[in-house]
Design a protein that fits this description.
globular; Aspartate Aminotransferase, domain 2; alpha/beta; 467 residues; binds ligand F0G; 2 domains; 3-stranded antiparallel beta sheet; Aspartate Aminotransferase, domain 1; 14 strands
């Protein structure tokens, strides 16, 4: 693909290769096609049920799948497992202070534990919690305590073809309307980058405006900051006045424009496990700390082992390194360019952690109730041993009411999430070629119907049958 591809990367003077080299490798293998067919059938056509060993290129998620650096492994080996006040906890506290500018935080086992603490402690039945676009675990944690999560995505996010720079922004007019109403809003959230909406960034200006509006009503703003580093890169690349600023300064500004944050270290923490919760209010922090002790652990380890904390303390610093971020964003953009150059419909512009294929458009003969995004995901496994994830009618089974309907809810997407520092451009070239081959005989791809499904979060465990 590269040789005849004018949009390729290798002749581009700007594009340096990855700023790392391999010193340990993990073999992967491509099963023969009849075996892939068989594995898929045994898994009830649900890719979450496959054994990872039966997958050749695994783009199911970018969460917890990063390759750690030698510095992270060294820190892991040196970690002391003290119950209270371990060295990794203090290293992590220094990182959180230096990078995010917060002097207090709670360590949790992953992002959704932070969401749980926040929801269980600060939200109550009937409360309304607005966001640009809540991630599904955030939404579920808020709903579990009887609160109502609502999405206010900006208008631009609804058009998958629009090339606006910050399609992750929140619609601030709708936020103002809500805050001026009689609704009780304990906090406002902003997801950076907007995963559910296509991995699109939120501008610094939008974060500041949301903060200003929320604080004007004495309501705190909490960032869902899983992919803060990738968001900061896009701020520098696309936002007026930011082009010459160092990434760490932009990151500080992002976190300074909020009153708290939840963080899954499995994304921009470059770690395989871990999460954080930060709040500026000492009083609220104390309430959450008490809850942390109940459900996660003592405050200097919470939900993490000291070894995990050590990897996160180093990983967060590596995630804002210029050379790393450049190669990360370049690689995701490369797959996006290759696919779109050959006519595979993708959500525009490229996001930070994944390429979202518009499967509804690629497979127009498959109706939404036959799950085009999932049909494409199955085809990618059948044709190439590639695992991806549907974000569409299978994932969002309930009909959303107007207030909670986010941009991607109207779309039938297949997400190709790229693990950090794991695959080479050759792997992505293979993924692109496989997708293009599927496009060329798209009519051979059939929809599916559900044969067995649980009451909620059905996409994780449902069984399906091709039509
Ligand atoms: N918020 C966002 C925006 C996320 O993308 C995720 C996880 C979470 C919160 C929850 O964090 O997994 O550590 O509990 N996203 C993963 C994904 C699962 O594949 O996009 P977690």
């Amino acid at each position: 693909m590269r040789a005849n591809h004018s949009n390729g990367h290798s002749l581009d003077g700007e594009a340096l290769p990855e700023p790392f080299r391999a010193k340990m490798v993990e073999p992967i293998r491509l099963l023969p096609k009849p075996e892939r067919e068989q594995r898929l059938a045994e898994a009830g056509h649900n890719l979450f049920r496959l054994k990872a060993d039966d997958v050749f290129v695994d783009l199911l998620t970018d969460s917890g799948t990063s390759a750690m650096s030698d510095s992270q492994w060294a820190a892991l080996m040196r970690a002391d497992p003290a119950y209270a006040g371990s060295r990794p906890f203090h290293d992590l506290a220094r990182t959180v202070n230096d990078v995010f500018g917060y002097d207090q935080f709670l360590p949790v086992h992953q992002g959704r534990a932070a969401e749980h603490l926040l929801a269980a402690t600060l939200a109550k039945p009937g409360d309304v919690i607005p966001s640009n676009h809540h991630f599904d675990t955030t939404r579920a944690n808020l709903a579990a305590v009887g609160a109502k999560p609502v999405d206010f995505p900006c208008r631009e996010s609804l058009d998958p073809d629009g090339r606006e720079s910050f399609k992750g922004n929140m619609d601030t007019e709708r936020l103002e309307e809500l805050l001026a109403s009689r609704a009780h809003v304990p906090f406002v959230m902003l997801t950076i980058t907007d995963n559910a909406g296509g991995g699109q960034p939120v501008s610094l200006a939008n974060i500041r405006r949301v903060h200003e509006i929320a604080n004007g009503h004495r309501v705190p703003l909490i960032l869902d900051s899983c992919r803060f580093a990738e968001n900061a890169w896009f701020v520098r690349e696309r936002e007026p006045g930011q082009a010459t600023r160092p990434i760490p300064d932009i990151v500080r500004d992002i976190f300074a424009a909020a009153d708290g944050f939840t963080f899954s270290a499995k994304k921009d923490g470059l770690a395989n496990m871990g999460g954080l919760l930060g709040l500026r209010s000492p009083e609220k922090m104390e309430r959450l700390r008490q809850r942390l002790i109940l459900v996660e652990g003592f405050p200097t380890y919470g939900g993490m082992s000291a070894r995990d904390m050590a990897t996160v303390a180093v990983g967060i610093r590596e995630a804002i390194e210029e050379a790393y971020l450049r190669s990360r964003i370049r690689q995701v953009g490369l797959l996006h360019r290759w696919l779109s150059a050959y006519g595979v419909p993708v959500v525009r512009p490229a996001g930070g952690h994944a390429v979202y294929v518009n499967a509804g458009r690629m497979l127009p003969h498959v109706a939404p109730e036959e799950f085009p995004g999932h049909a494409l995901a199955c085809a990618l496994y059948r044709e190439g041993g590639i695992r991806s994830c549907e974000i569409g009618s299978l994932m969002f089974d309930a009909t959303p009411d107007d207030a909670t309907a986010g941009g991607s809810r109207r779309l039938e997407l297949t997400r190709l999430a790229i693990p950090r520092r794991v695959y080479s451009d050759n792997h992505l070239d293979y993924v692109a070629r496989t997708a293009i081959r599927i496009l060329e005989s798209a009519h051979d791809v059939h929809g599916l119907r559900i044969t067995q499904a649980p009451a909620s979060l059905r996409h994780f465990s449902a069984r399906l049958q091709p039509l």
